[in-house]
Amino acid sequence: LYVIPLCDCVSVVLGQKGWSVTYTPQSICILKGSTVELSCSYKCPSGHKVTTTLWSTEWGTGIEPNNLGQDPKYEGRVDYHGDKKKDCNLKIRDLRESDSATYRFRLLTDQEGGKYSGNPGVTLSVTGLQVKVTGGHQDKTLTCITTCTLADNPTYIWYKNGQHLDESTSPQYKDPVSSNYEDSYSCAVKGHEDLLSPAVCVQGQSCSRVNYTKRRICVLKGSTVDISCTYVGYDYITSTFWFRSDKSTPEDLTTDPGYAGRVEYTGTFEGPFILRITDLREEDSAEYRFTFKTYSIEWGHSFPGTTLTVTGNTTLTEHYDILVILHLQNIMIYW
Asked: What range(s) does the Ig-like domain occupy (predicted)?
């Protein structure tokens, strides 16, 4: 339960008068995996002491609204930012498509009949990115699609085999599409490159591609982390390695003196390929990317990978998935 102080509201006649909840905006379309803040403010009648505030997605006659703060589906992902100035903002992190719903704010007071729910609420639509392929073998068209309309005319970024190709305000890829069976394409929205679409084969189903298990990870200094991906090569694969994106030239981490004795690779082709880093240091905080070579291509180094944050704080940052591995008496413990 969220408990906030006495409302300092204008004196008005009780009942529905004097109650209000304002949402700005009332409709939001946002990318899966991102963070949203539902902006909200409220007023209540004079003399009412607010005892409980909550956000809910379940409404109806005879139905008691659920409290998102106690819903297991939102555990660890919800923060209520209400304050004494009648703000009732709600932040939801690591958005999932199943979070798409209408969210309403509700408050209860110490007076008889002191219950109020703010209608109509905020309609939240959570969408992923997908590459839609249309046309024939020689004249295919690629479109970066969503299930709702993103705000602010986003700029779309296109990748071919992990290599940055183009940026445009149009969701449609403007250049001719490759006719090679090994080539894959993916798209992203500028500013949210880590939330890009899955790579799509445009000629058949056996193209080269890489998919990361997690896009953001936060871990404690001194612990061990596993960063993983799956990959497929259309042609015979000749080499594979992980590297830091902040290096001017991609460098295999197993040859980097800063990681000496702390890095190992495990996994197989088409299975999770894992980068394990032990004895983590804060300077290990970086974006880690995977690349591979075949006889015909090298997976592009501009393809976004997994961002690792290493912290010495006991409270891990709220913006990242958490994966910590501690070794205590030969026991691995996962959070």
From this structure: 120-197, 198-311
